[in-house]
């Protein structure tokens, strides 16, 4: 049988999630999670889950802190996992004066300061690098002060590399509420 992209797109998310739960039941996987799910989607999904997502991989960095979503995930035992934790080439997070000063105060690189900031928030980070030296540097962790954690909130500009749909449109797309032929979940 051959599948097309539209075959995959037309599968309601809860059908996919139930298949992932069944896979977890087999013991072939230890944990299942989601990516780019906002709070509205999670609020609708969690009551229907037998197994709550272990992680929600989302864009998290000082310029896009998503504190409300991070807190929601943690309240529901979902580990927030940051992709683009350093912002990436179009968002120069490591050039931010606050994190440069923080790095200087802790005698580390701005990247180490930013990664440690997210770790201190209880967020798992997935930094991307092909440079072996940078990969090794990324393992160094510092402990930001309470003041640094508090002041870092001022860096949040809600700037993103990936731009999701508004919550309502995202809900319609994920749960197929815009298609009469798809059963509502």
From TrEMBL:
InterPro entries per UniProt: AKR, Aldo/ket_reductase_CS, NAD(P)_OxRdtase_dom_sf, NADP_OxRdtase_dom
Gene3D superfamilies reported in the protein's UniProt record: NADP-dependent oxidoreductase domain
Key words of the record: NADP, Oxidoreductase
GO function terms (MF aspect): oxidoreductase activity, acting on the CH-OH group of donors, NAD or NADP as acceptor
Recorded family membership: Belongs to the aldo/keto reductase family.
Residue ranges occupied by any NADP-dependent oxidoreductase domain in the UniProt entry: 8-142
Keyword rRNA processing part of the UniProt annotation: no
Name of the protein in question: Aldo/keto reductase
């Amino acid at each position: 049988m051959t599948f097309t992209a539209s075959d995959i797109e037309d599968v309601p998310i809860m059908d996919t999630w139930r298949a992932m739960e069944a896979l977890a039941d087999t013991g072939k996987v230890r944990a299942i999670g989601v990516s780019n799910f906002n709070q509205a989607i999670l609020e609708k999904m969690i009551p229907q889950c037998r197994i709550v997502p272990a992680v929600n991989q989302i864009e998290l960095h000082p310029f896009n802190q998503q504190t409300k979503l991070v807190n929601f995930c943690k309240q529901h035992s979902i580990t927030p996992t940051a992709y683009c934790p350093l912002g990436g080439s179009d968002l120069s997070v490591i050039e931010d004066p606050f994190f440069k000063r923080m790095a200087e105060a802790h005698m580390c690189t701005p990247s180490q300061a930013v990664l440690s900031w997210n770790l201190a928030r209880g967020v798992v980070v997935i930094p991307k690098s092909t440079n072996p030296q940078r990969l090794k540097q990324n393992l160094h962790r510092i402990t930001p002060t309470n003041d640094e954690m508090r002041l870092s909130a001022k860096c949040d500009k809600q700037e993103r590399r990936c731009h999701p749909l508004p919550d309502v449109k995202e809900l319609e797309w994920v749960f197929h509420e815009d298609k009469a032929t798809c059963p509502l979940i």
